[in-house]
Amino acid sequence: MHVARLSLTDFRNYRSAELAFEPGATVIVGRNGQGKTNLVEAIGYLATLGSHRVSSDQALIRSGADAAIVRALLSAGGREVLLELQLNRQGANRAQVNRGTAKPRDLPRYAHTVLFAPEDLAIVRGEPSVRRRMLDGLLVQRVPRLAGVMADYDRVLKQRNSLLKSARARGIAASQLTTLDIWDERLVELGAELIDRREELVAELREPLAAAYRSIVDDDHRPELQSVLSIDGADPDAEPADAASAAPDGATDAEASVRAPTAERFAAALASMRRRELERGVTLAGPHRDDVLLLLNGLPAKGYASHGESWSFALALRLASAELLRRDSTTGDPVLVLDDVFAELDRMRRQRLAAAVGGYEQVLITAAVLEDVPEPLSDRVIRIAGGEVVESPSTGGQPSHDEPAPSARRMPSEASGV
Fold it and tell me: Where is the composition biased (Low complexity) (predicted)?
């Protein structure tokens, strides 16, 4: 799969932009703050329904605008599909597929991308929420239906937390809070599926992670992933060494096979923690409290890995994600996006990364300086300045103003069914 065209209206610093892409590698060049990352961020949003830089959609809408529109024409196996997304300041976001009404959560069925950015260093060194977001973004691309499960889980979690806070304020004892049982059932139903899906994904990532890491570093530092589950008593806020000893994936296969089903363990955890939850007014177990432990040579990467090793681990995780999507897909490779990555790598890792991604159908690269990008990936160049395309291969070096971009058309109103 590759992105053939991208149109933006009022997205980030772009009032309007229209770009054409080809298969292979394309470098988007511009000084910092000019908008090159905003272009690939828009593509990534269609695949994951989220930004790799911010948690709120509001930051994606240009200042002074009521909505932002992203349109991408995707080509795969000789077939094309047009995806359109409108992000609104007020009200729900809206989407279309081939001009027909769709739900935003339908878009990842068609758009598959893997984006690596400087922010990904936080996957190794940051908080558990960063690693959860990485796993969930990949899950949504592989099983788009899970976007709805995640949204439903978040809604139930908010309702349950609200009830806990209200009970704490009113001094209600745990034994008197029978209405909590209703929310527990729904939380367990949704949360157990998410926990199981994440554990399956962690297991599937291990082999391609090891291969990707070796391809970048040319050494075997034994990169490993272990689930850290709050329903089994693990504390994601513990120090890395403590988390390593508590990670349930450290058990043998025989021990893991006799564990009770996830739903039973989740329900038991909620029951045992109810008094503590009432004291704190918050839900203390569930996928929203889980983590995945990253290990190098048997030690937690967070706290032990060097800067270069952390970069290599984060990059290997993204390449492993791309390999899983490539295996799953009936539409070809995912689009690989490398956002300001080469500036952070030494010469050896640059060359190894270029070799690792060279076989993918489309690679989009952003860079402040073209010289940072290895020569095999820099044949096609798009230059960005001040939220405008100032040079691209499709315009012979000059931006095209012959006709307005189709992104200028707003989507139909809710009254017309979108």
Answer: 241-257
CB 11 within 8 A of CB 60: yes
pLDDT in tens, 278-320: 999 999 999 999 999 999 999 999 989 998 899 899 999 999 9
H or E element in which residue 31 lies = none
3-state secondary structure of 111: coil
Last residue of a domain, one of 307, 328, 349: 328
Residue with tokens 């010469």: 347
User: Do 123 and 89 belong to one domain?
Assistant: no
Does 189 lie in the same domain as 75? no
- Residue 44 near residue 32 (C-beta atoms within 8 A): no
93 annotated as belonging to a binding site for a ligand: no
Same domain, 288 and 418: no
**Does 176 count as an annotated binding residue?**
no
Is 250 known to sit in a ligand binding site? no
How many domains does the chain contain in total? 2
Same domain, 104 and 153: no
Question: How far are the Cα atoms of 114, 159, 219 from residue 282, in angstroms, in the given order?
Answer: 34, 10, 44
pTM of the model: 0.82
Q: Which residues contact 124 (CB under 8 A, 6 or more apart)?
A: 294, 301, 302, 305, 310, 313, 314
The whole-angstrom separation of Cα 362 and Cα 378 is 13
pLDDT by residue (tens digit) across 100-152?
999 998 898 899 999 988 889 999 999 999 999 999 989 988 898 998 999 99
Same structural domain for residues 66 and 185? no
Q: Report whether 276 belongs to an annotated binding site.
A: no
Question: Would you say 286 is a known binding-site residue?
Answer: no
Parent domain of 220: 118-328
- Residues 167 and 291 occupy one common structural domain: yes
Distance between CA atoms of residues 354 and 369, nearest Å: 16
Domain holding 187: CATH number?
Answer: 1.20.1050.90
For the chain, list residues with pLDDT below 70. 174-175, 236-258, 394-418
Q: Among residues 311, 328, 345, which one ends one of the domains? A: 328
With beta carbons less than 8 A apart as the criterion, state whether 4 and 20 touch. yes
Tell whether 235 and 343 lie within a shared domain.
no
HSE (CB half, 13 Å, CA atoms) of 127? 4
Does the annotation flag 318 for ligand binding? no
Please check if 44 is assigned to a binding site.
Answer: no
